[in-house]
Amino acid sequence: MKILDRYILTTYLKTFVSVFVILMLIFILQTIWLYIKELAGKDLDIAVVFKFILYFLPKLIPLVLPLTILLASIMVFGSFAENYEFAAMKSTGISLQRAMSGLSVFIVILAITTFFFSNNVIPWAELNSYNLRRNIAKLKPAMLLAEGQFNEVGTYNIKFASKSGDRDQFLENVTIHIKGDNGRTNATTIISKTGELASEKNSNVLKLILEDGHYYSDLSSNNPRNRNTNPFAKSTFEKKVINIDLSQLNNVDFDEKSQTDKYNMLDVAGLNKSLDSLVKKSEEEYVTFAKNLELRSSFVNNFLKSVEKNKDSAYTGNLLDVLDTKKKVEILEAASRTISTPKQIISTKKTALKISEENINKHIISLHEKFALGFACVILFFVGAPLGALIRKGGIGLPMVIAIVLFLTYHFIGIFATNSAKKGGFNPILASWFSTLIMLPLGIFLTRRATADKGLFDFDSVIEPLKNALKIKPKDSVDYRFLISYKNNELINVINHFETLGHDESCRYEALKVLESRGNTIDSLRDMGLVINEDFDTSETIIRKDYKPHSKFAIILFIIGVILLILHFVFKNNKMPSLASASIQLSLVSFVLFVIYYIKSLLNIFKFYNHIQKSTKKPNLFLIILGFPLYFITYIFLNDKIKEDLKLICLESLK
To answer: What is the pTM of this model?
Structure first.
């Protein structure tokens, strides 16, 4: 390893470890604060608390590691640029890619390690943390009785409006639901105006004294008819004492693992096995469901049996036509009665099938996230390193802000994509990779700009088109309105002898525009003494007669499509399905036509630059791709670029 690679790697590792430790501590504190309600008041041993933190540490890696790589890359390479170390490297012929090459190997190794970590350690942590939380939740629930909500204590659900006293022992407006033998339904309800927790804080018996209340209990009858009337017993009491045994609830094994098959607890092999089982089970459910519906359509078989069959002929007409009117009415009535039950079954089964689909999607997302995390580390390195070189700022200030903004963008895009995919609104495979794929073009763009030693943004290329679109002229700009008062022959003289008259080249172009605005063609101007190359005619024809109409149609169709799309959601939210459907259909038509005219305008642009033999000045591919979703911005930049290039060609064509 060369001295330079060792120096860069050592500097990066120092920053990486420091940032990783700091961020991990921050996220650990945030995790403890998030779950403080589950831990507080449980009288937990310090070993259990450390176990809780230990199990949650690996789950924080998908958040901490990408942010660490991004922030450390910006800080290190920003510091190199700020202290002119990159300038020293470039003076000896060492490019940015060469400086990043040794560190890139480390990042790739780290990405591979991250995959194995996410495949083995994170599922283990998910398994243990989930079951530990469930076990902690069983421990001393009486200590966590909260106001205004139901608190589950064994088979009791206790709710009260407020509590008071030196030990919060006095309760107001108490409602208690007691579960039945099946453990699901609430068989008994107790309502009292006041209550008191009379047991000691660390007692294994929760003693609750209720006063001035009512007692409602469901009664089960052996007669099915009586069950439909929902009989119950009601009584009134002045004082009632309830003792709830907590000894079994507090006797919790923290190492018990009752849940082991959740999607986030499985490695790649386990997820593939579960996916195969879930997909096969889903297919079997659909087949069984279809057969069930077919069996319920018994009237079809009865209908076919009632028809006299002729084995020597095949009837291809309407089946109802072979029956008389009475039989037709019977068949239609039977069909109407028969279809009501399948409709109810479909409605009920739809929810179950949707849950099954969501479960499959969660497994697919969990599988691909294990691979995507490693790639994200590599991509974010190639975002952070060139970005640091471009902003030329090390330390904690600006790099921290930029890193957090970029990471939040990456993180929330991933959250929105995966949440949508779980519900079936987005492809689950693409959702796992979506945020990484969004960062990929940014990494390529920043690396190219840093390699070319350009600034982060070329503000002039952004500001100038906007100024031209808004017709904002700089203070030192020349006003050519005086040309309007010139006669045609005087304007021709300005074009041909601008230097003698003390004008600049832009004055020649403005004079030509004035002549064209008066209805003069290039050929008629030649007859008047204008000397201009004939190739300019073709260039101007391509832009004025082809590109401009196509680009105008494209921007109009784009705006119409966006407006109709917004109206679709407005109508949908206001429960106007017919208008919502019509607006989305028209919006799709507008966008399809927009794409056609956008492609036509791009072909015109390429034709123009090929004609003037300046292919290197073609629009950037990134700008062209950006033009589809953001054409209202791209339209301004493309028009300004074409206008400037046409002006240059015109000046070159004037002799």
So the answer is: 0.56
Amino acid letter for position 269: A
In this prediction, residue 252 carries a pLDDT of 45
Q: Which residue has the tokens 């945020």?
A: 435
Angle at CA of residue 105, ends 101 and 109, nearest 5°: 165
Residue 276 · residue 363 · CB < 8 Å: no
Would you call 629 helix, strand, or coil by DSSP? Answer: coil
Q: DSSP letters of 427-465?
A: -HHHHHHHHHHHHHHHHHHHHHHHHTT--S--HHHHHHH
Burial of 10 (0-12, 13-18, 19+ CB in 10 A): exposed
SS3 track for 408-432: HHHHHHHHHHHHHHHCCCCCHHHHH
Residue 31 is which amino acid? T
d(CA 385, CA 444): 11
Question: The tokens of 174 are what?
Answer: 């108490």
The three-class DSSP label of residue 20 is helix
Q: How confident is the model at residue 462 (pLDDT cuts 50, 70, 90)?
A: very low
d(CA 149, CA 635): 57
Among 192, 185, 134, 183, residue whose Cα is nearest residue 155: 183
Q: How far apart are CA 552 and CA 598, in angstroms?
A: 9
Are 525 and 515 in contact, with CB atoms under 8 Å apart? yes
H/E stretch holding 605: helix 577-611
C-alpha torsion sign, points 418, 420, 422, 428: negative
DSSP 287-319: HHHHHHHHHH-HHHHHHHHHSPP-TT----S-G
Helical ranges in 502-576 per DSSP H: 505-517, 522-527, 535-541, 548-573
Q: How far apart are CA 163 and CA 170, in angstroms?
A: 5
| Model pLDDT for residues 122-174, shown as the tens digit of each residue | 888 888 877 777 666 655 554 556 777 887 776 788 888 888 877 677 888 89
Grouping H, G, I as helix, E, B as strand and the rest as coil, residue 540 is helix
CB neighbour list of residue 440: distance below 8 Å, 6 or more residues apart: 379
Model confidence over 468-521: pLDDT tens digits? 544 545 544 566 677 777 887 777 777 777 777 777 777 777 787 777 777 777
Q: SS3 for 199? A: coil
Burial class of residue 562 (count of CB atoms within 10 Å of its CB; 0-12, 13-18, 19+): middle
**Dist CA 155 CA 141 (whole Å):** 12
At 239, list the tokens: 């004082």
Q: Which residues fall within 8 angstroms of residue 439, CB to CB, at 6 or more apart?
A: 376, 379, 380, 383, 406, 410
For residues 73 and 626, the model is more confident at 73
Q: Inter-axis angle of helices 631-653 and 459-469, to 10 degrees?
A: 90
Residue 392: left (phi > 0), alpha (psi -120 to 50), or beta? left
Chain centre to alpha carbon of residue 602: 30
CA distance 522 to 532: 8
- Count Cβ atoms within 10 A of the Cβ of residue 495 and give its class: 0-12 exposed, 13-18 middle, 19 or more buried: buried
